[in-house]
Amino acid sequence: MKDVDSRNWRVKTTNPSQKELNVALSKAKENIHTALNRFETNQFTYEQVLAFLRGEVAYDSVDSYIDSVIKESRSSTTYQDYKNTLNAFKHHLNINKSTKVLFREFGSYELLDKFKRNALNKGLAGTSINSYFNKIRAVLNDAHDKGYIYEKFTLKRGLKVTAKPSKPIQSITSKEFEEAVSKVNSIYDAQALALYLLMFGLRGMYLTDITALKDAEFKHDNFDNKDTYLNIFNDGHEYIIHRRVKTKNRMNDDLVIRLDSMIPLLINITKKLFRITHEGRGLISDNKLALFDYDLSDTKLHKNLWDVYQKRIRKILGFSFKTARKTYNTFATELEVSNTIRDILLGHAPQSINERHYVNRQTVKLSEKVQQAHTEILEDFEFEKLSMMLYVKMMNYLSDKDIGKISGILDSLVKRVKS
Angle at the Cα of 393 (from 290 to 397), degrees rounded to 5? Predict the structure, then answer.
């Protein structure tokens, strides 16, 4: 302290490091002033003041909080969802992407109301806006629970978009798909219909599920023999064990899906078509039971890849990819498949308290009923027949070499379908 002038808190010239120390002292006083000012205006909590003065990240912006705390404590999918929500917030409020959003701005009623009105005016669906609000609330309350903001966030009444009457559930018939196959006029038409058929044949998967097949577990007579439930799948058939992307972090069961010859062949031929249209992009999986190999957290790539086929399927079939799942469920209902079996087929968690706490869904008999129901749904939809019709169309876009590799398999399948 002998080298410090207490009258102005400056280091005396007698100290050889006077210049450097005065710069550091000036910066420390500035930081103290900033921290106290933000504390007094409720921008910093006590914990943030200490973190700021220690030179640690104080998370004064939502951007820094999402890119650090959220990123480290959540799955990559959840982190990306919150990141996209922040980007949407900036987009609909005309805030530059590089501008940091403060917590008080993210939770401001006026800004959130403006965000909603602007988003609605640009045609964003009410359900999407409500979903954004839920994620905004989750981020703010996470920050509150960890002591980075003062008040717990409550979404004020009137902000959420009132739900409109639900639209009629859409599903397709075998005849409609058959007519779509007859309209195939390009390799992209064929790919779009093949993807739709795969989604149906794999129990109503979504786009992300088809992409995530690269992470599915493949089994062929190598289930655990010590487990009676799993042992029944050692029956000579091929299976994949898949966890739906949408519910992978919940208590939903894995999907154990039997693969008869049609599904692997459909994946095989579709992949050959994708190698043509997406050559050199590094997107195609080497896994024989998967199409793609890219990170789902790359939302830009995922959107760009699928947008083409989203538009193509609507044009040639007249329905979106999501109706594949609804169609599968509708066929199951028409066949009077029980709610329990239907939920297992679709990867849904138990619906009732009774089933959630008292029903063992992994028994031999239930599993046999699930596989039987799946087979009956495919038969009722004429899955084999429609697959063969689509294969004929797809062959028009394959090389002679590729056709030669699968012609023998197709011949035997044609005989089986005709018989």
Answer: 70
